[in-house]
Amino acid sequence: QVQLVESGGGLVQAGGSLRLSCAASERPLASVAMGWFRQAPGKEREFVATITWSGSSTIYADSVKGRFTISIDNTKNTMYLQMNSLKPEDAAVYYCAESYYDGSIYEAEYDYWGQGTQVTVSS
Known about the structure:
With about 120 residues, the protein is mainly beta. The protein is built from no helices and eleven strands. The strands form two sheets. Strands 2, 4, 5, 6, 9, 10 and 11 form a seven-stranded mixed sheet that branches. Strands 1-3-8-7 form a four-stranded antiparallel sheet, with no helix packed on it. A hairpin with a 4-residue loop joins β7 and β8 (about 80-85).
């Protein structure tokens, strides 16, 4: 059973920055990519970004493109999400996940999920 643990969430003012981490207990043999999703109160969980384990390919949601940067250290099985220029609409619980698919933006195509880390952005 793969375990994913997110950390780095917290309270930040609009315009500020935050760096999230996701530590995986292991990399499944057939795993291809990792990704970040988020869910705000009363809203559907949405895709944020994904990256291959090699770090060679990334995809970002339009809402975060240019502000967020996803990265991975595959020697540590740890993925990161650097969030800059945070907006109130970025406030949500952020989840990291693992997928056997390359470049997936769909929640259903991710197999393992962390418990989430809360990001709160004040105006």
